[in-house]
Amino acid sequence: MSKPVYGKTAVQSRNVAKISGSLWALVVGFILFLFWTPFQVGLFNGQLVDFEKPIYISALLGALMLLVWVGLDFKKFKLDEQRDLIGLFAVFLPITYALSLFVAVSHYMAMNMFFIQSMYAAVFIIALYLLKKKQVNVVIENAVLAIAYFIVGFGLLNWLGGGKLAGSLVGWFSNTVRNGIYLDAVMTDSNGLRLTSIFQYANTYAAFLMAFLFVAVFALVRSRKWYGTLTHSFMLVPIIVSLLLTLSRGGLVMLPVVFILLLLFLKPAQQILWIIHLGIAGVISLVITNPVTNIGIELNTAFSSSAALKGWGYLLGASVVVAGLGWAIQRFAAPWLQEKLGSWSSRKWTGLWLPLGSVVLVGLIAFLLIGTSAKSILPNNIETRLENINFKQHSVLERFTFYKDAVKVVKDYPILGAGGGGWSALYEHYQNNPYTSRQVHNFFLQFLIEVGILGFIVFMGFILYIFYKYIRGYVRRDKDEFNNGFFYLIITLSILIHSLLDFNMSYAFMGILVFLGLAGMAAVMDSKPLRRNWNKAGLRLGYLAVIALGSLFLLFLSVTYISSSNAAVSAKRLMGVSQSYEEIKASLTKALRNRPTHPESVVYLSSMDQQIYNQTQDEQYLDESFSLLTRALKDEPYNKNLLNQLISYYNLKGQKDLALAVYQDNADKFNWDIIWYSGLISSSFELGQDAYNQKDKAKEQEYFKTGLAAYDHVVAGVEHLKTLPPEQMQGRPFSVTPEIALNAGKIQYMSGQIEAAAETLKLGLSQDYTDPNNREIARWYLAALKKNGGQDQAVYDQLIAAEPTEAGQIDKIVAIQF
Q: How many Å separate Cα 172 from the centre of its chain?
């Protein structure tokens, strides 16, 4: 599909126009921005105060850079070709998120996504015009590669016991460094020790590594300098080993898919070179992965300098070997291949042979590593992960469940969506079983949920137009690889393809790479001239005015939110070290001044107010708590922490009926939260018992009916979970707990459902009769049996052995006429 790019092709001059010092200053600022962002946990949109400040700072920096660009380019700016309209179109991406704010189910999370999308638009517009300048394009490409290689080295430094050194390298500008260590660069989960580097999430790091593995091979093959060839060859082993250390099945599954897609863009000589370089690096990486894995596990348990040196010896030695072989291949084999296969380039379909052959090769390698004893060359943890790659594996089944549940959300919020963070706020309402996942694990579905069909059409139109125009121009062009934008296609395609299976784009740094890649593709895409009407002064200046005003607005908003975030973080820190209500409240009040419905700050302050009320019985604290909560819940109606605080408020006020109303009115929002349903059933029983004592039969029946309906929901849920595939994990616990069994059983007993009460109460029994709660369950269970003329002698004997007075208690219950 592409034109030949290796060898002595004519290289267009990259010194067409002199670049001003002020523009170079913008380029340096842009590169520093790209270096700063990944070390803020990749700008993870974690929807908590701990993660929000870097997002606001990045939006502020994006607005500043955009203003600088407007200032530098407003005299020379023209709307004279199609790519210029792409910059205009990018503005509509944050606008769709602004529109979704009007229907957002969480204003807080929707605003965070508005900041992120605004920053993406700024990155795209700035990069589009910077990358059109060939000198700047080369500098930014090299900077992106350098940053990526540094991230790979940073991750391996942490794996091989150098956490303190790694932390010292970035601790001066990264808030993620604690006690000299970058948090969770290596972390342990149920699969064992996993390398996560900057992201604290192995799967997204795998997506990043996959993208830059292919970028490194591309840079290696196109390099015309010996030191470039050696550098890019050298990095192949560290990248592949890092990818294996993530233990990411998704990364290993999607890697061959992206590889084959990328091969379709290359001529036969290039395809062969890619396969050779990756094959050599892959085999040598597999040889050293076992000892490097074991050494890393050892070093993360207890540091040993000798083990660390040994680990680096394996890694560096293998990298040097691959670098030497890579240089030799490019120096001797590549020109020969180009000469021998050059005539094939003009033949139709020749570019398909090797990709099709690669499919067979990938299938063979997969069979060897999964279905035969060849997998024994791998470390045990990687071998186990490979063995579990199948469509019945729990993570695959869970993802299918997420996707089905996501479609339910889209049906209810079709046009403008549910706003940024819509899935995170709503998923408990729509989920099929009690999993915990604040991410859909599919970027495109999550985007559709957040901005609806309207926003999704805008976004997909934006990226598909760029891909279409880029590919169309790529096929027709005959340019060297420094000017064909393939570097940016690799990054964009790799991350977006992997994002079909994971939430990589919830890390805004990954989004920055995607939009930088889209800009790089747009800068060289097939772009036709526009009619002269487009380049009128009014349109040009109007566009720049919109950009400038939008940037100023974003700048002001970012400063406001950064100030609020600083205060919220300060309050959270003070809560761990200070006992002063006034000191902590001062910070929280400042945090809420510009964001009065910020969920975490509201929860902290309302909780403190309720605690002070308990100590002083001063109603003003309760009034403030109520005011904070009711205001926040207007913007955050699905926030469980706020609702629990409201329930606590009503209980303190003695308004238990209103507390029950909160439980009941919001139960469908948390269909699989057993704690919520336990509270609902418990409150129903308490209020029903109070009504019974007050001889209010109507109220008693009303409360008991509410409790029994909640209990029926729990029982139905338990039965539904039995229908899940055996390979699929159900998620959070969901069962008839002892507390639920006791309260529901009492309700049934007092409602005359004696047999049902016995069955329910039996579900809550345990063998520990020293536990007062278990004795109470047994007491009511035996009373229900006795009421109907039955007995459970084994339970009775154990109960009486533990507490002889229980016999009289059972008789008292039986004697009561409800």
A: 26
